[in-house]
């Protein structure tokens, strides 16, 4: 493969970067999903401006868990971090390849909260009122991160900093920017765009754009 601009960006703790850009092999032959075009820019897509994280805001975990969590951003950074090279596919048709995201794996937070056996679904909540949902098994897999770093720097606020979710196996609307809460559910519920006609399954290699 040719050099990419994420070459040289390393995990702050382990000095390693995991390359997840091959996960498309699970879904098809082409790294670029059908109907997508590659962009060098990283466009910003938000339903309504960029909210800011106040000093008293906390990241909360609730629902079908043993321990409700309320974490500050500093506490979040105490969890083991990973840096991964991932591709990013927006349902409107652009893909940004080779993004280096640093953050905490979803599975790490789920384990910390103690998810109940009957939990099947997850709703992400964000500071701008955005929500998005995924089945639990689509969240606990490799690549789903609570990301606070991008390309070796703090995640820019218009891209969801200080904390966002990334979902490289799904269209990017499944990754809540400014994520402030995770709710574990025993039944499926639909998020903001999913209620408005976008696909709940959102697999880019099947072009699951609309429901
Ligand atoms: N909180 C929040 N998260 C969000 C959105 C939003 O409007 N609010 N837009 C989604 C959509 S449609 C996309 S394509 C990506 C865009 O991320 P970016 O702005 O970093 O490119 O964020 C997703 N997460
Ligand atoms: Mo999007």
UniProtKB/TrEMBL annotation:
Biased amino acid composition, Basic and acidic residues: 26-41
Region described as Disordered: 25-49
Segments forming domain Oxidoreductase molybdopterin-binding: 59-193
Pfam families for the chain: Oxidored_molyb
PANTHER family membership: OXIDOREDUCTASE MOLYBDOPTERIN-BINDING DOMAIN-CONTAINING PROTEIN, PROTEIN-METHIONINE-SULFOXIDE REDUCTASE
Protein name: Molybdopterin-dependent oxidoreductase
Organism: Halorubrum glutamatedens
Taxonomy of the source species: Archaea, Methanobacteriati, Methanobacteriota, Stenosarchaea group, Halobacteria
